TrEMBL record:
Recorded superkingdom: Bacteria
Name of the featured protein: tRNA-(Ms[2]io[6]A)-hydroxylase
Single GO BP term: tRNA modification
GO MF term list: tRNA 2-(methylsulfanyl)-N(6)-isopentenyladenosine(37) hydroxylase activity
Amino acid sequence: MSTASQPTKTILRLELPTDPRWVNIAEKNIEEILVDHAYCEQKAATSGISLIVKYPDKERLVEEMTELVAEEWSHFERVMEQLKKRGYGLGRNRPDEYVVELTKHIRKGGKRERQLMDHLLVNALVEARSCERFKLLWKNIQDEELQKFYYELMVSEAGHYVGFVKLAKEYMPAEEVDARLKELLAIEADIIRTLEPRPDRMH
C-alpha cells in the first residue's frame, strides 16, 4: 500500500499506517469485508487451538488460549449475525496474503520457547493490525450499527495484542521478546507496504 514518505507511528507500535484508501474501498464492499472478517475470526480461533495442541505442557498458555479461542469464536458468531442481518451469506474463504507473509518469519529450529515466542508475536501483530483496521472502520463508516460493532472489537483486539506479548515474556526473557518484536514490526511494515488495498480483505 502506498503511504506518505514519513509515516507516523500508529497505535500498538505499528510502524506503518493503513493506506487511507482502504476505508473507502471497505465501505463500498462491506459484504466482502464482513465475509473476510468472519474467516479472520475463525482463523484466529484455529490458531489458538493449534498453540494448545503444539504446547500442551505450557499451563499458562493453555489457559489463556482456551479463553481466547472462546472469545474469537464468539466474534465469528457476531460477524455472522451482521452478515445475516444484511441478507449476506458466508461466501468462500480466501487466502490472507498478509498473514501468510508474516507467518513465513516464524523461525524453525532452535529452542521450542523461541519458536513459541515467534508464534505469539506474529499473532500479536495480526491482532494489532486488525485493531487498527477496526478503529478506521469505527471512525469512518456511515453504518451506525457497524460503527459500534467495530469499536467493541477494536477494544478486544487491543487486549489480545497485549496478552500475546505478555505471554511471550512468560517463556522468554523480556529483552529478547522486545528485540524480536521490534524486528517483526519492521517486517510487518514492509509487508503492508507491498500489499495493495483490496476490496475483499480485512488485512
